[in-house]
Amino acid sequence: MGLPEMWSFMCRFNSFKRTNIILQHLRRSMHMDAAGEVLLERRGCAGVITLNRPKFLNALNLNMIRHIYPQLKNWEQDPETFLIIIKGAGGKAFCSGGDIRVISEAGRANQKIAQDFFREEYRLNNAIGSCQKPYVALIHGITMGGGVGVSVHGQFRVATEKSLFAMPETAIGLFPDVGGGYFLPRLQGKLGYFLALTGFRLKGRDVYAAGIATHFVDSEKLGMLEEDLIALKSPSKENIADVLEAYHTKSKIDQDKSFILEEHMDKINSCFSANTVEQIIENLQQDGSSFALEQLKVINKMSPTSLKITLRQLMEGSSKTLQEVLIMEYRLSQACMF
Protein backbone atom coordinates (compact mmCIF):
# COMPACT_ATOMS: atom_id res chain seq x y z
CA MET A 1 0.00 0.00 0.00
CA GLY A 2 1.52 3.34 -1.11
CA LEU A 3 1.46 6.61 0.85
CA PRO A 4 -1.67 8.06 -0.91
CA GLU A 5 -3.60 4.83 -0.27
CA MET A 6 -2.47 4.72 3.35
CA TRP A 7 -3.53 8.37 3.85
CA SER A 8 -6.96 7.70 2.31
CA PHE A 9 -7.43 4.65 4.54
CA MET A 10 -6.49 6.60 7.68
CA CYS A 11 -8.91 9.43 6.81
CA ARG A 12 -11.75 6.92 6.33
CA PHE A 13 -10.84 5.14 9.57
CA ASN A 14 -10.77 8.39 11.58
CA SER A 15 -14.11 9.46 10.13
CA PHE A 16 -15.61 6.05 10.96
CA LYS A 17 -14.16 6.20 14.47
CA ARG A 18 -15.54 9.69 15.13
CA THR A 19 -18.99 8.69 13.85
CA ASN A 20 -18.99 5.69 16.18
CA ILE A 21 -18.01 7.86 19.16
CA ILE A 22 -20.86 10.28 18.40
CA LEU A 23 -23.33 7.40 18.04
CA GLN A 24 -22.19 5.88 21.34
CA HIS A 25 -22.63 9.24 23.05
CA LEU A 26 -26.12 9.67 21.59
CA ARG A 27 -27.16 6.13 22.52
CA ARG A 28 -25.97 6.64 26.09
CA SER A 29 -27.88 9.92 26.30
CA MET A 30 -30.96 8.19 24.90
CA HIS A 31 -30.90 5.66 27.75
CA MET A 32 -29.94 8.03 30.58
CA ASP A 33 -32.56 8.52 33.26
CA ALA A 34 -34.02 11.95 32.56
CA ALA A 35 -35.65 12.12 35.99
CA GLY A 36 -33.04 14.65 37.07
CA GLU A 37 -33.34 16.71 33.88
CA VAL A 38 -37.06 17.33 34.18
CA LEU A 39 -39.13 17.16 37.36
CA LEU A 40 -42.79 16.17 37.11
CA GLU A 41 -44.84 16.68 40.27
CA ARG A 42 -48.48 16.79 41.35
CA ARG A 43 -48.82 19.68 43.80
CA GLY A 44 -52.20 20.71 45.09
CA CYS A 45 -54.53 21.13 42.13
CA ALA A 46 -51.68 21.38 39.61
CA GLY A 47 -49.26 19.29 37.63
CA VAL A 48 -45.88 21.05 37.76
CA ILE A 49 -43.15 20.60 35.13
CA THR A 50 -39.69 21.88 36.06
CA LEU A 51 -37.02 21.98 33.35
CA ASN A 52 -33.97 21.08 35.42
CA ARG A 53 -30.77 21.60 33.43
CA PRO A 54 -29.69 24.99 34.78
CA LYS A 55 -26.04 24.48 33.77
CA PHE A 56 -27.26 24.17 30.17
CA LEU A 57 -29.85 26.96 30.53
CA ASN A 58 -32.54 24.25 30.66
CA ALA A 59 -32.01 23.34 27.00
CA LEU A 60 -34.47 20.67 25.85
CA ASN A 61 -33.25 17.22 24.88
CA LEU A 62 -35.11 14.18 23.60
CA ASN A 63 -35.22 12.48 27.01
CA MET A 64 -36.94 15.49 28.56
CA ILE A 65 -39.49 15.64 25.74
CA ARG A 66 -40.20 11.92 26.13
CA HIS A 67 -40.91 12.38 29.83
CA ILE A 68 -43.00 15.54 29.52
CA TYR A 69 -45.33 14.43 26.70
CA PRO A 70 -46.95 11.37 28.32
CA GLN A 71 -47.25 13.12 31.69
CA LEU A 72 -48.92 16.11 30.04
CA LYS A 73 -51.44 13.77 28.39
CA ASN A 74 -52.05 11.96 31.71
CA TRP A 75 -52.68 15.22 33.57
CA GLU A 76 -54.97 16.38 30.80
CA GLN A 77 -57.18 13.33 31.45
CA ASP A 78 -56.86 13.36 35.25
CA PRO A 79 -60.01 14.82 36.90
CA GLU A 80 -57.96 15.85 39.96
CA THR A 81 -55.51 17.96 37.91
CA PHE A 82 -56.98 21.39 37.14
CA LEU A 83 -54.00 23.19 35.64
CA ILE A 84 -50.46 22.58 34.43
CA ILE A 85 -47.52 24.83 35.33
CA ILE A 86 -44.16 24.75 33.54
CA LYS A 87 -41.06 26.58 34.78
CA GLY A 88 -37.27 26.48 34.58
CA ALA A 89 -34.79 25.79 37.38
CA GLY A 90 -31.88 28.02 38.33
CA GLY A 91 -33.32 31.50 37.87
CA LYS A 92 -31.30 32.35 34.75
CA ALA A 93 -33.34 30.65 32.05
CA PHE A 94 -36.80 29.25 31.47
CA CYS A 95 -35.47 27.31 28.48
CA SER A 96 -32.81 28.47 26.03
CA GLY A 97 -34.01 26.16 23.24
CA GLY A 98 -33.29 22.69 21.92
CA ASP A 99 -29.92 21.10 22.65
CA ILE A 100 -28.35 22.24 19.36
CA ARG A 101 -25.02 20.45 19.86
CA VAL A 102 -26.65 17.03 20.26
CA ILE A 103 -29.09 17.69 17.40
CA SER A 104 -26.26 18.78 15.11
CA GLU A 105 -24.18 15.70 15.94
CA ALA A 106 -27.24 13.53 15.38
CA GLY A 107 -27.78 15.08 11.97
CA ARG A 108 -24.24 14.20 10.93
CA ALA A 109 -24.09 10.77 12.51
CA ASN A 110 -27.56 9.26 12.71
CA GLN A 111 -30.45 10.65 10.75
CA LYS A 112 -33.08 8.78 12.78
CA ILE A 113 -32.29 10.48 16.09
CA ALA A 114 -32.56 13.92 14.49
CA GLN A 115 -35.85 12.87 12.91
CA ASP A 116 -37.12 11.65 16.27
CA PHE A 117 -36.13 14.83 18.09
CA PHE A 118 -37.95 17.23 15.78
CA ARG A 119 -40.99 14.98 15.35
CA GLU A 120 -41.43 14.45 19.09
CA GLU A 121 -40.67 18.08 19.98
CA TYR A 122 -43.32 19.30 17.53
CA ARG A 123 -45.78 16.69 18.80
CA LEU A 124 -45.27 18.14 22.31
CA ASN A 125 -45.78 21.69 20.97
CA ASN A 126 -49.07 20.58 19.41
CA ALA A 127 -50.16 18.84 22.63
CA ILE A 128 -49.57 22.08 24.54
CA GLY A 129 -51.52 24.08 21.95
CA SER A 130 -54.50 21.69 22.13
CA CYS A 131 -54.32 20.98 25.89
CA GLN A 132 -57.77 20.99 27.49
CA LYS A 133 -56.41 22.06 30.88
CA PRO A 134 -55.20 25.62 31.58
CA TYR A 135 -51.44 25.69 30.92
CA VAL A 136 -49.34 28.31 32.69
CA ALA A 137 -45.76 28.93 31.51
CA LEU A 138 -43.56 30.97 33.86
CA ILE A 139 -41.14 32.38 31.26
CA HIS A 140 -38.67 33.88 33.71
CA GLY A 141 -35.20 34.37 32.22
CA ILE A 142 -33.94 33.29 28.79
CA THR A 143 -36.74 31.95 26.58
CA MET A 144 -35.61 31.12 23.06
CA GLY A 145 -36.31 28.60 20.30
CA GLY A 146 -37.56 25.36 21.84
CA GLY A 147 -38.32 27.22 25.07
CA VAL A 148 -40.78 29.35 23.14
CA GLY A 149 -42.31 26.14 21.76
CA VAL A 150 -43.13 24.77 25.22
CA SER A 151 -44.62 28.06 26.41
CA VAL A 152 -46.16 30.29 23.74
CA HIS A 153 -48.83 27.79 22.59
CA GLY A 154 -50.20 27.48 26.14
CA GLN A 155 -53.13 29.50 27.40
CA PHE A 156 -51.17 31.65 29.87
CA ARG A 157 -47.57 32.94 29.65
CA VAL A 158 -46.14 34.95 32.53
CA ALA A 159 -43.11 37.17 31.88
CA THR A 160 -40.94 38.96 34.46
CA GLU A 161 -38.44 41.83 34.28
CA LYS A 162 -35.76 39.17 33.67
CA SER A 163 -37.47 37.54 30.69
CA LEU A 164 -35.46 37.51 27.47
CA PHE A 165 -37.25 36.34 24.32
CA ALA A 166 -35.78 35.70 20.88
CA MET A 167 -36.11 33.43 17.87
CA PRO A 168 -32.46 33.53 16.65
CA GLU A 169 -32.60 30.71 14.10
CA THR A 170 -31.84 32.71 10.93
CA ALA A 171 -28.35 33.33 12.34
CA ILE A 172 -27.59 29.58 12.53
CA GLY A 173 -28.96 28.43 9.19
CA LEU A 174 -32.37 27.28 10.43
CA PHE A 175 -35.81 28.92 10.73
CA PRO A 176 -38.02 29.88 13.71
CA ASP A 177 -39.65 26.50 14.20
CA VAL A 178 -41.65 24.98 17.14
CA GLY A 179 -44.76 26.64 15.71
CA GLY A 180 -43.10 29.97 14.92
CA GLY A 181 -44.89 29.88 11.58
CA TYR A 182 -48.16 29.98 13.53
CA PHE A 183 -47.70 32.49 16.36
CA LEU A 184 -45.28 34.98 14.75
CA PRO A 185 -47.50 36.12 11.84
CA ARG A 186 -50.35 36.57 14.34
CA LEU A 187 -48.52 39.23 16.37
CA GLN A 188 -49.46 42.88 15.81
CA GLY A 189 -48.79 44.21 12.31
CA LYS A 190 -45.56 42.81 10.86
CA LEU A 191 -43.84 42.51 14.24
CA GLY A 192 -43.57 38.72 13.98
CA TYR A 193 -41.90 38.94 10.58
CA PHE A 194 -39.42 41.45 11.99
CA LEU A 195 -38.62 39.27 15.03
CA ALA A 196 -38.26 36.16 12.87
CA LEU A 197 -35.95 37.64 10.25
CA THR A 198 -33.73 39.73 12.54
CA GLY A 199 -33.71 37.61 15.72
CA PHE A 200 -34.39 40.82 17.67
CA ARG A 201 -34.40 40.30 21.45
CA LEU A 202 -37.27 41.43 23.64
CA LYS A 203 -36.68 41.93 27.35
CA GLY A 204 -38.87 42.23 30.43
CA ARG A 205 -42.21 43.96 30.00
CA ASP A 206 -41.64 44.21 26.24
CA VAL A 207 -42.25 40.44 26.05
CA TYR A 208 -45.75 41.18 27.35
CA ALA A 209 -46.23 44.30 25.20
CA ALA A 210 -45.38 42.29 22.06
CA GLY A 211 -48.06 39.70 22.84
CA ILE A 212 -45.64 36.84 23.57
CA ALA A 213 -46.66 36.84 27.25
CA THR A 214 -50.23 37.21 28.48
CA HIS A 215 -49.21 38.60 31.89
CA PHE A 216 -46.29 40.36 33.58
CA VAL A 217 -45.30 39.72 37.20
CA ASP A 218 -42.37 41.01 39.28
CA SER A 219 -39.87 38.14 39.59
CA GLU A 220 -39.79 38.37 43.39
CA LYS A 221 -43.53 37.54 43.39
CA LEU A 222 -43.26 34.53 41.08
CA GLY A 223 -42.94 31.98 43.90
CA MET A 224 -46.00 33.42 45.64
CA LEU A 225 -47.96 33.33 42.38
CA GLU A 226 -47.12 29.67 41.90
CA GLU A 227 -48.18 28.83 45.47
CA ASP A 228 -51.46 30.73 45.08
CA LEU A 229 -52.24 28.87 41.85
CA ILE A 230 -51.46 25.50 43.44
CA ALA A 231 -53.63 26.30 46.47
CA LEU A 232 -56.76 26.93 44.38
CA LYS A 233 -59.61 24.49 45.06
CA SER A 234 -60.96 22.88 41.86
CA PRO A 235 -60.36 26.10 39.92
CA SER A 236 -61.99 27.03 36.63
CA LYS A 237 -60.08 28.71 33.83
CA GLU A 238 -61.60 32.00 35.01
CA ASN A 239 -60.36 31.45 38.60
CA ILE A 240 -56.81 30.92 37.29
CA ALA A 241 -57.06 33.98 35.03
CA ASP A 242 -58.25 36.07 38.02
CA VAL A 243 -55.18 35.14 40.10
CA LEU A 244 -52.84 35.93 37.20
CA GLU A 245 -54.60 39.23 36.53
CA ALA A 246 -54.36 40.23 40.19
CA TYR A 247 -50.59 39.72 40.22
CA HIS A 248 -50.25 41.43 36.83
CA THR A 249 -52.18 44.49 38.02
CA LYS A 250 -50.03 44.84 41.15
CA SER A 251 -46.76 44.70 39.21
CA LYS A 252 -45.00 48.06 39.18
CA ILE A 253 -41.67 47.34 37.43
CA ASP A 254 -41.44 49.34 34.16
CA GLN A 255 -45.19 49.90 34.39
CA ASP A 256 -45.05 53.22 32.53
CA LYS A 257 -42.38 52.19 30.04
CA SER A 258 -43.48 52.26 26.40
CA PHE A 259 -42.87 49.28 24.12
CA ILE A 260 -39.27 49.38 22.86
CA LEU A 261 -40.41 49.08 19.23
CA GLU A 262 -43.45 51.36 19.51
CA GLU A 263 -41.82 54.31 17.72
CA HIS A 264 -40.59 51.99 14.94
CA MET A 265 -43.79 50.03 14.29
CA ASP A 266 -44.79 52.11 11.24
CA LYS A 267 -41.39 51.39 9.66
CA ILE A 268 -41.61 47.70 10.59
CA ASN A 269 -45.10 47.41 9.12
CA SER A 270 -44.14 49.08 5.85
CA CYS A 271 -40.67 47.58 5.34
CA PHE A 272 -41.55 44.01 6.36
CA SER A 273 -44.83 43.80 4.45
CA ALA A 274 -43.06 42.73 1.25
CA ASN A 275 -43.44 39.23 -0.19
CA THR A 276 -39.72 38.73 -0.89
CA VAL A 277 -36.55 39.15 1.14
CA GLU A 278 -35.07 41.23 -1.67
CA GLN A 279 -37.98 43.68 -1.46
CA ILE A 280 -37.66 43.91 2.34
CA ILE A 281 -33.98 44.77 1.92
CA GLU A 282 -34.84 47.38 -0.71
CA ASN A 283 -37.54 48.85 1.57
CA LEU A 284 -35.01 49.22 4.39
CA GLN A 285 -32.49 50.83 2.07
CA GLN A 286 -35.07 53.27 0.74
CA ASP A 287 -36.27 54.14 4.24
CA GLY A 288 -32.73 55.18 5.15
CA SER A 289 -33.43 55.89 8.85
CA SER A 290 -30.88 54.82 11.45
CA PHE A 291 -33.28 52.12 12.64
CA ALA A 292 -33.83 50.75 9.12
CA LEU A 293 -30.10 50.75 8.34
CA GLU A 294 -29.35 48.96 11.61
CA GLN A 295 -31.83 46.20 10.69
CA LEU A 296 -30.30 46.00 7.23
CA LYS A 297 -26.90 45.39 8.84
CA VAL A 298 -28.37 42.61 10.97
CA ILE A 299 -30.18 40.94 8.06
CA ASN A 300 -27.02 41.00 5.94
CA LYS A 301 -25.32 38.82 8.57
CA MET A 302 -28.03 36.16 8.45
CA SER A 303 -28.15 33.05 6.31
CA PRO A 304 -29.73 34.10 2.96
CA THR A 305 -31.37 30.68 2.60
CA SER A 306 -32.78 30.86 6.14
CA LEU A 307 -34.21 34.31 5.47
CA LYS A 308 -36.06 33.10 2.38
CA ILE A 309 -37.34 29.93 4.09
CA THR A 310 -38.48 31.94 7.12
CA LEU A 311 -40.39 34.55 5.13
CA ARG A 312 -42.22 31.86 3.15
CA GLN A 313 -42.84 29.86 6.35
CA LEU A 314 -44.59 32.81 8.03
CA MET A 315 -46.57 33.73 4.93
CA GLU A 316 -47.81 30.15 4.58
CA GLY A 317 -48.37 29.75 8.33
CA SER A 318 -50.52 32.86 8.62
CA SER A 319 -53.51 30.95 7.23
CA LYS A 320 -52.77 27.47 8.65
CA THR A 321 -53.70 25.80 11.93
CA LEU A 322 -50.97 25.10 14.47
CA GLN A 323 -51.01 21.42 13.57
CA GLU A 324 -50.67 22.19 9.85
CA VAL A 325 -47.78 24.57 10.58
CA LEU A 326 -45.95 21.96 12.68
CA ILE A 327 -46.26 19.38 9.87
CA MET A 328 -44.83 21.95 7.44
CA GLU A 329 -42.02 22.80 9.87
CA TYR A 330 -41.11 19.14 10.39
CA ARG A 331 -40.58 18.76 6.64
CA LEU A 332 -38.53 21.95 6.60
CA SER A 333 -36.43 20.78 9.57
CA GLN A 334 -35.46 17.58 7.80
CA ALA A 335 -34.59 19.45 4.58
CA CYS A 336 -32.35 21.80 6.58
CA MET A 337 -30.64 19.03 8.55
CA PHE A 338 -29.74 16.61 5.77
TrEMBL record:
It holds the Pfam family ECH_2. Residues 47-337 form the Enoyl-CoA hydratase/isomerase domain. It is found in: Mitochondrion. It catalyses: 3-hydroxy-2-methylpropanoyl-CoA + H2O = 3-hydroxy-2-methylpropanoate + CoA + H(+). The keyword Hydrolase applies. Pathway: Amino-acid degradation; L-valine degradation. This is 3-hydroxyisobutyryl-CoA hydrolase.
